[in-house]
């Protein structure tokens, strides 16, 4: 499933969308490569997202509620890691 954060498309898997305390929560995993690592980390540091899920016609503003990665050093060429995001509606 495609998830768009601030006009940046991510190919997401294990997507979960739910309402929690009257706010939307979206969690998902996505792959990050050594080639895309810098752009993704710059995007995530913004922590102010316009989230769009085209397949479900859902759009909302969110911040990071939880973040995790399977690898610490994606600066080495050819590496790939799994990132996890839980986004919470503002």
Tally of individual domains: 1
Which word captures the global form?
elongated
Structural class designation: mainly beta
Multimerization state = single chain
Which residues form runs of ≥5 with pLDDT under 50?
A: none
Mean pLDDT: 94
Q: What is the N-to-C succession of helices and strands?
A: EEEHEEE
Given the structure, what is the number of helices?
Answer: 1
* Largest beta-sheet details: 6 strands, antiparallel, barrel
CATH class equals Mainly Beta
Q: How much of the polypeptide forms β-strand, as a percent range?
A: over 45%
The second-level CATH architecture is: Beta Barrel
Number of strands: 6
| Helical proportion, percent range | 10-25%
Strand order of the largest sheet: 1-2-3-6-5-4
Instruction: Say what the CATH topology is.
Output: Elongation Factor Tu (Ef-tu), domain 3
Terminal CA distance reads 22 Å
